[in-house]
Amino acid sequence: MPGRKDFFNHPAAHTLAKSGIVADYFARWAAKLVQSPAGKIVYLDLFCGPGEFDDGTPSTPLLVLRTVLNPPPEHRQRLEVRKRLLERLQCVYNDVDPQHVEQLKEKVEALANYTLLAHKPLFYTRKVEQGGLAKWRMVVGEHPTLLFFDPYGYKEVDLQGIDEFIGPYGSECILFLNYHALRRAASNPLMSGHVKEVLGGDAVEKFLASDDEDSTPDANEAKRIILQRIKDRLTQRHGRYVLPFELATEQGSTFHIVHVTKRFEGHDLMRDRMARHSVPEWSPKSPESVPSFQYVEKSQLWLIAPSFFQGRTIDALARSLLEASGEYSPSISFKELYERHSPGRLYVKQNYKAAVRLLVERGEARVEKDGSEYSRKKLQAGKLPDACVIVWNR
Ligand SMILES: C[S@@+](CC[C@H](N)C(=O)[O-])C[C@H]1O[C@@H](n2cnc3c(N)ncnc32)[C@H](O)[C@@H]1O
C-alpha cells in the first residue's frame, strides 16, 4: 500500500473505491439540495490533494466536479437540475501543501465546461487542526455544505467539530478514517495521547484491552468499540445518523468511510450508494441478499468472507421486525416502519421489503393498501409502496 510519500504515485484500489463513493454521493446530495428555492450549496474538501495521481488517474476533487460539469451517464440530471447546480455550487478546496493546491487549481480550471460555473472554486492552503472547523464554517457561511474530511492519518480528526459543523440545514460530512493508524498509535505510549484527543475518555484503554492482532474476534471487538466511540462523538449535538463503510486492503490494512448527517433522507441515500459500491457486489435486483457495506480487494475475499455479514440476513431482519412489532402495533405504514427501524442498521430498503414478504409468508403479518389486502403477487415481485400498511397478526 502506498505510504504518504507515494500516495499520489498511482491509486490504490481502495482509494478509487473511496473516491467513487464520495463523487457518487455528492452528485445525489447536490441534486437533492438544489431543489430548495435558492442560495449556494457548498462542497468543502479540506484535504483535497492535487486532484490527479501521477499516472493521470483523476482523484476525488475532479471526480466530484465532473459530476456537475461533464456528468457520466449515471449522474446525468434533468436540464433544470443541471442549470441550478451550475448556478449554485460553490467548491472550496484546501490542502496544507501549496503545490497540491496549485496543481488542483490548474486541473479544475482546465475541465471542460468550467466556465459554466457561476461561482468559481475557492482555494486555500491552511493547515487543518483539531478545533478549527468553526473557522471553516465562517468561510462557507450557513449554506448547506458537504464536508469531505480526508487526512492521511487521524491527528486532525475532530469528531465534535464535525458534529457542530453539520448543524446548518443540509450539511453533512464524509470522513475517511485510517483505522490501522489509530490502532497502531493507541498501543504506542508516545502517540496514544493523540488517540485520546480524537476518541476521548477511556477509549484507548478499552481499545487495547480488546485488541489483539492475532485474534480475529478480539480485533473485531476493537473495531466495534472504536466505531461506537466515533458514533457517540459525532452525535452529541447535531449528528443523528452515522454510517460506516469498511475498506480492506491487500496488505491487511483497514480504513473506514464514515458518513454523518441529521437527515434520514441523507442517511438512506448514502446507505443505498454504499450498498451499490460494496465488494463483494450487491445488486438491488437481488433484494434477498444483504449488502456487505465493505470494499474488499479481490485477493482478500476468501480471508474475511465469514465476517462480512455479521449475522445480517433477511431472516434475522424479519425476526428483528417481529420482536419490535409491539412498538409498531397494531399497524404501521411501510414508510414509517422503514424510517423508524432502519437507522443505523446495515440493510437497504429492498431488504426490508423482502423481510416483510417473509413475515407475510409465515403468517406473522399481512399487508394492506387502501383498506384492502395488498396483492401477494406484487409483494412476491418485491413491490411494496411506502403507503402500504403492515398489520401484525397477533
Ligand atoms: C489522503 S490525501 C488526500 C487525498 C484527496 N482527498 C483525494 O481523494 O485525492 C491527504 C492530503 O492532506 C494534506 N494534508 C496533510 N496534513 C494536512 C493538514 N493538517 N491540513 C491540510 N491538509 C493536510 C496532504 O498534503 C494531502 O494532500
Through-space gap between termini: 55 Å
Rg value: 22 Å
How much of the sequence is in beta strands?
5-15%
* Biggest beta-sheet profile: 8 strands, mixed
How many domains make up the 3D coordinates? 2
Under CATH, the topology of the largest domain is which?
A: Rossmann fold
Task: Write the CATH homologous superfamily of the largest domain.
Answer: Vaccinia Virus protein VP39
Number of beta strands = 12
Ligands bound, unique = S-adenosylmethionine
List keywords for this structure.
single chain; 394 residues; alpha/beta; Rossmann fold; Arc Repressor Mutant, subunit A; 2 domains; eight-stranded mixed sheet; four-stranded antiparallel sheet; 16 helices; 12 strands; binds S-adenosylmethionine
Description:
It is a single chain. With 394 residues, the chain is an alpha/beta fold. The chain folds into 2 domains: 295 residues, Vaccinia Virus protein VP39 (Rossmann fold), CATH 3.40.50.150; 79 residues, Arc Repressor Mutant, subunit A (Orthogonal Bundle), CATH 1.10.10. Helix content is 42%, strand content 15%. The chain has 16 helices and 12 strands. Strands 3-2-1-4-5-7-6-8 form an 8-stranded mixed sheet, with helices on both faces. Strands 9-12-10-11 form a 4-stranded antiparallel sheet. Helix 4 links the parallel strand 2 and strand 3. Helix 1 runs parallel beside helix 2 and helix 1 runs antiparallel to helix 11.
